[in-house]
Amino acid sequence: MPAGKPxxxxxxxxxxSYACAIFDDHRRPEVCxxxxxxxxxxxxxRQDALIRIQQLEIISRPEYRDD
Length: 67
Description:
Layout: H1 30-34, H2 39-42, H3 46-59
């Protein structure tokens, strides 16, 4: 996704089993390679993770920032 991935839109490389289809591929974006899953983001299950990540995407929008 050269222009980036909009919030709430699944990655084009996500398989039906929610795995990365290009995990070991040189085309895997750097942002994905640097992401380290942790409880603060992943929560108790997939649904919890989606809610938490959606909240992070919302509060990281420019209109919500104070810098």
